[in-house]
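Journal club side-thread
Mid-discussion, someone asked how the predicted structure for our own chain would compare to the paper's figures. Pasting it here so we can look after the session.
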Amino acid sequence: MKFWYQFTADASKHPRFVAALHQHAERVGSPGTQITVHGMDADLGHGLLQADVILCPAVYTSIVVPLFLRNAWKAQQQGYDAFVIGTFAEPVLRELRSLVDIPVVSAFEASMLAGCTVAPTMALLVLSEQTVPYVQASIERHRLAARVSGIQLVDSVMLETDLDHEFEAPAAYLERFKAAARKAIAAGADAVIPAEGMVAAIVAANGLQEVDGVPVIDSVGVSILAAEHAITLRHRLGLKPSPLRADTQPRAAAMGALRPIWSGVPHDDR
């Protein structure tokens, strides 16, 4: 199986993060499972820092939505078996599932569902205060507020470019993560979820599976296994998204409206 793993930052500025994702996927995936990691496309990011993108919803929507739509389509055209949304903001999740036939797996959704199997309430530990509104929106989208004890900051301010360097010497960051987890546990969390792709990767890469006996959900590993599971369900049980009120695939006549997004990506009119 081959998965396209998409996140929103510039991959060239986060080499340690990308390497950690590949290494962890090799550890947790089934034999033969491969992932390719993709960040921001050069023609969309315009050299912006991730903080510049997420601070303004208008900028985020203008840059990130086309990125995910066209790369999900590209993944399907290039024969990938699943498309993994590696950001907990899970941009245009429903729209992606309406666009492509291959499974679209959300790191947020997969991690929350895994957490629901081991704990009645979970806390989401986020990179910084900039990411909180996006995580809150994801909680509401899935109607899982009753299972969330709270959102806890690992750092009030942290840029992803700075966090990438922590992969080389992660001890101090992991201690801050543990401190945030303990605050969340004291506030009622029965499990904690690293609720941002890079936070999840540094936690998973260093084998942090619990804090004071409370489970830490491996968001990266769970996403990969959820993609494997989605493919297994489809092949063995024929399980696909419902077309009624959820994910209606575009008709051939409607594909023309999407052409500006593709920017030269080969496509077939269905």
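Post-session note: DSSP finds 13 helices and nine strands in the chain.
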